[in-house]
Design a protein that fits this description.
Layout lengths: L1 H21 L51 E3 L6 E3 L16 H13 L1
Antiparallel strand pairs: 1-2
Length: 115
C-alpha cells in the first residue's frame, strides 16, 4: 500500500513538472490546476540483459556447445604405456608431452639418470 501511495505521489510530481515546464512558463504557480483526468506516466522498460553471473531469467542466449571429449587427441605414456588424452594445460606443448602425469615424468627422469 505504501508503495502505491509513493508511486502516485511520484506521478503527480512528474505531471506537475511536465505541465509547469511546458505550458506555464512565465505564469504564476497559483493559476495552475491539476487536470481532472489522471496522468499516467509509464515506468521505463526493464533491461533484461545481465552483466555478470550465470544463467538466470530473461536470457534467450543459448550457450555454445563444448566439444565432446571423445574427439580429443590421445597419446600413450612412455613410462606406464597407458593412453592419456589432451588437456588444456598442454595446449601449447602437446607435441612435447610424453608422460601422462607428474609421477610418470619423475619416473622417466629417474630412469634416465640411472642409465
Amino acid at each position: 500500500m505504501k508503495r502505491q501511495v509513493h508511486h502516485r505521489l511520484q506521478l503527480i510530481a512528474a505531471a506537475w513538472i511536465l505541465a509547469s515546464s511546458s505550458s506555464l512558463i512565465g505564469r504564476s504557480c497559483s493559476s495552475f490546476i491539476l487536470p481532472s483526468a489522471p496522468v499516467v506516466i509509464a515506468p521505463p522498460n526493464r533491461i533484461t540483459t545481465r552483466l555478470f553471473g550465470r544463467g538466470g531469467r530473461g536470457g534467450n542466449d543459448k550457450k555454445e556447445k563444448k566439444p565432446s571429449k571423445s574427439n580429443l587427441p590421445e597419446k600413450i605414456c612412455v613410462v606406464c604405456n597407458r593412453p592419456f588424452t589432451w588437456r588444456k594445460k598442454w595446449e601449447r606443448s602437446w607435441d612435447e608431452v610424453t608422460c601422462c602425469s607428474k609421477s610418470c615424468n619423475a619416473k622417466r627422469r629417474s630412469m634416465k639418470d640411472e642409465s
